[in-house]
């Protein structure tokens, strides 16, 4: 019988389970209160401004919308274009494609000075490569703490790519006086069904848009609609401009 194959439980005496030793808990770190001051040598008042803006942002009544987007075609397209951009000395990530899909687009950047949102102006007249080049410029200036006022003002819509720091979903907070913001999660290979009901490896990204409640905006939902244009075989130059 089955029960004979299972070894009998050891008798109490034979057990050698060590007794739990209770030691007092010692906290090695202490809470520290840091005043929000002019600590940044690059932007005097930078931290104060960041706290002020984020406090104003949190007063806005937000409405959130979230969905998943199949980026399989876009991932393929970037693979093709990346070496071409490299020849021109431009690093081509996914961001320029997302930025291109809307107007005067701010990009939330994680820098040594904190969170900053420079924007790429008039994306509608720029090619994806021009946007990538401008994004490269903003990133270098951002990490050196050398962004100017013109780069930091005039944005109309912001994109926050939390995928670069590993996040799949986010609830982005509107940057006033803008009325909407989009968050982009990490792109993951996941099983999905194609039109024939076959499972394929899809490149899935979750996107979320927050906009001021009761306001209809042209945000991420429109951008998402514009991306499938790639699938319709529209020539790259028509959609992204010449490079
Ligand atoms: N999923 C998968 N891979 C991604 C990705 C995503 N969502 N986003 C970027 N990547 C890839 C890029 O394509 C690139 O890959 P390759 O080396 O193959 O080209 C690599 O990750 C590094 O990208 P990057 O960070 O250099 O460039 P980027 O243009 O994608 O992002 C920036 C720039 C400024 C948005 C980013 O550096 C950053 O600061 N993100 C954080 C934003 C943040 O903190 N938001 C939260 C607060 S506000 O709501």
UniProtKB/TrEMBL annotation:
Its subcellular locations are: Mitochondrion matrix
Superkingdom, according to UniProt?
A: Eukaryota
Family membership, please give it.
Answer: Belongs to the 2-oxoacid dehydrogenase family.
* Protein name, per record: Dihydrolipoamide acetyltransferase component of pyruvate dehydrogenase complex
Q: What is the lineage of its organism?
A: Eukaryota, Metazoa, Chordata, Craniata, Vertebrata
In terms of the whole protein, what range is present?
Answer: 232 to 474 of 650
């Amino acid at each position: 019988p089955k029960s004979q194959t299972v070894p009998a439980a050891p008798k109490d005496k034979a057990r050698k389970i060590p007794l739990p030793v209770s030691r007092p808990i010692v906290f090695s770190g202490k809470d520290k209160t840091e005043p929000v001051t002019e600590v940044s040598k690059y932007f005097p008042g930078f931290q104060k401004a960041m706290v002020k803006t984020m406090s104003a942002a949190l007063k806005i009544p937000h409405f959130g919308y979230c969905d998943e987007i199949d980026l399989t075609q876009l991932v393929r397209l970037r693979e093709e274009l990346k070496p071409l951009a490299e020849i021109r000395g431009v690093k081509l990530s996914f961001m320029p494609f997302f930025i291109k899909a809307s107007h005067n687009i701010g990009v939330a950047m994680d820098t040594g000075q904190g969170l900053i949102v420079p924007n790429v102006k008039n994306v509608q007249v720029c090619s994806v490569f021009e946007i990538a080049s401008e994004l490269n410029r903003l990133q270098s200036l951002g990490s050196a703490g050398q962004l100017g006022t013109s780069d930091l003002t005039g944005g109309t819509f912001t994109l926050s790519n939390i995928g670069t720091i590993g996040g799949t979903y986010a609830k982005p907070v509107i940057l006033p006086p803008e009325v909407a913001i989009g968050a982009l999660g990490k792109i993951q290979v996941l099983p999905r069904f194609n039109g024939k009901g076959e499972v394929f490896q899809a490149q899935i990204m979750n996107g979320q848009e927050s906009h001021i409640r009761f306001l209809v905006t042209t945000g991420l939902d429109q951008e998402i609609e514009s991306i499938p244009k790639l699938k319709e075989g529209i020539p790259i130059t028509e959609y992204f401009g010449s490079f």
